[in-house]
Amino acid sequence: MADTLEPGAQPYAEAIIKNSRFVARLCRADSESEAAELIRSARELERGAGHHCFAYVIGHDESRVERSSDDGEPGGTAGVPILNVLKARDLVNVAAVVSRHYGGVKLGAGGLVRAYGGTVATAIDGAELKPRRRWEVLRLAADHADAGWIEAELRRRAFEVTDVEYGERAVITLIAVDTEPLIAAIDEITSGRGEYTPAGHVWR
Q1: What is the pLDDT of residues 21-77, one digit of tens each?
Q2: With 0-12 CB in 10 A as exposed, 13-18 as middle and 19+ as buried, what is 91?
Q3: Which of 49, 122, 138, 202 could make an S-S bridge to 99, C-beta 3.0–4.6 Å?
Q4: 183 pLDDT above the threshold of 90
Q5: Phi first, then psi: what are they for 26, rounded to 5°?
Q6: What's this model's pTM, rounded to 2 decimal places?
Q7: Are 54 and 96 within 8 A, CB to CB?
Q8: H/E element holding 177?
Q9: Residues 93, 97, 99: CA angle, nearest 5 degrees
Q10: Helices (H), the chain
Q11: Which residues pair with 101 in a beta bridge?
């Protein structure tokens, strides 16, 4: 299980460190284009900033994408610390950007790492996080004459039906965090004749 942000949530934090002003913004990002929109927005809102350093984590398993940028700060002092905070908090489908308004005092590599990572951590501390869980997918084949009442009974028992396709037979697609109760219900409803197959998983 990982956490994410609610769509539309925009956690924010500011820090003044040796006269430099660090402004952190986060958002839910289900795609790299949504992460890019946060970065574009930060550049527009913080036009006086000399650096807009960012990181994001999108997707799970083999589709996971991690990106970071120091945007002109010394290598490894900004983007990677932001990314490390997102990973340490086990966040996914989240983008973060920190804009720095330089205050005339150099912070050194260690100071930059603490400033960028710390400002993002503060923004996360003030955010309401949403658990993101892995749901298993099952496809249940049924005769057309039976599909309607089987689907209705599964819904009545609060199982989540995501799709019904009608071909030679009807195929009901279901998802569940724990498939054991779902399989037991299918067996009971169909008197053990239910033909179901695992069909991967989704994250929600």
Answers
A1: 999 999 999 999 999 999 999 999 999 999 999 999 999 877 899 999 999 999 999
A2: buried
A3: 49
A4: yes
A5: -130, 160
A6: 0.80
A7: yes
A8: none
A9: 175
A10: 32-45, 79-88, 108-125, 144-156, 179-189
A11: 21
Average pLDDT, the chain: 96
Whole-angstrom CA distances from 104 to 18, 42, 100, 107, 177 are 8, 22, 12, 10, 53
Whether 27 and 36 have beta carbons less than 8 Å apart is answered as: no
Q: Which amino acid is at 112?
A: L
C-alpha span between 70 and 146 (Å, rounded): 59
> d(Cα 51, Cα 184) in Å, to the nearest integer?
56
Q: Which amino acid, residue 22?
A: F
Q: How many residues does the chain have?
A: 204
Residue labelled with tokens 């037979």: 169
Cα Rg of the chain, angstroms = 23
